[in-house]
Amino acid sequence: MDRYTCPCPLRWADADAYGHVNNALYLRFMEEARTRMFQEVLPADEAARRQNTFVVSRASLEFRAPLHYREAPVDVHVWVANSRTASSELAYEIWDPDQLYAKGTTTLAAYNLVTSRPRRLSDAERAFLARYDGSSSPP
To answer: Does the global pTM surpass 0.90?
Structure first.
């Protein structure tokens, strides 16, 4: 299994009065990594993208350690935990080599914005997700 890794920069405004990165921003880190990961499979044409997109239907986070503001980015690792005909669950770890800050998941539904209806994954999308399939790998 391959994991997609995205280095996410921290901003000074991300930190609270104690110098910790605000917990709500972990979802932004997950979104940034997911968006970059999916750029390869989403259509470049806006009209096609509206018909073949994904929406987050569920998100969860488990905080493990406080992340203090610093200039170096934090790495977000993403892989596919489960994939079905019309949805996929992605798993995330936000960490440095020696410190895990958070673990999370999102459930993505394949969606057509034009019809406002769910859709099935295409063959190309299933092949893309299979590259990052960790459902049979140990945690």
So the answer is: yes
